[in-house]
Amino acid sequence: MSAALALVDASGPDALSMRRLGAQLGVDPMAIYYHVPDKKAGLVVLIIEAIMAEVDLNAGEAGAPPHERLCQLAGAFRSALLAHGNAAELLVGRNLETPSELRPIEKMLAALLDSGLAPLQALWAVNAVSDYVIGAATMQLRMQRAVAEGKPTVTQASRLPAEEFPALRHVLAVAGVSRFDAQFEFGLEALVSGLLTSTERES
Question: What is the Cα–Cα distance from 117 to 115, expressed in whole angstroms?
Fold first, then answer.
């Protein structure tokens, strides 16, 4: 479903429709129903499957430590999302259900189970990591779009009362340009390290 993915990449999720997809493909929109019977919802599933198919499943080698495997797979997941700026937002708040959607999740879950987490803990952990990756990627993409449109993306420290916001003023004064990669890796390392310390907790 590369045409639908390209359409959303270029114009955003709101642009997705059978009519516009048909026009892009040069076919009658009704012809698409033979391939996607449940209309727009079916197109969304196909787009998400296409994105998830781009996640490098070799990123987390089976012989590597679980911590390393999980971080590498999370990074590969993020890379696939960042490659599709507008389409990535389709994953926000959505349950992944099809085999194509779930293959990267299966790999991350296997790493968590290999770390010694109980099944329920591993499920919670993979949800936490997935939510972090999707949230970080979509926030980055939104900020990058805002910058491209000339919109402010950082709170001006000078606008905050010094007596009420000393910590924020101090941090914003040194923050400078957003360092998306470093920020993602810092958060991911903290999250994964924290999750894997729970191997001795009861489920």
Answer: 6
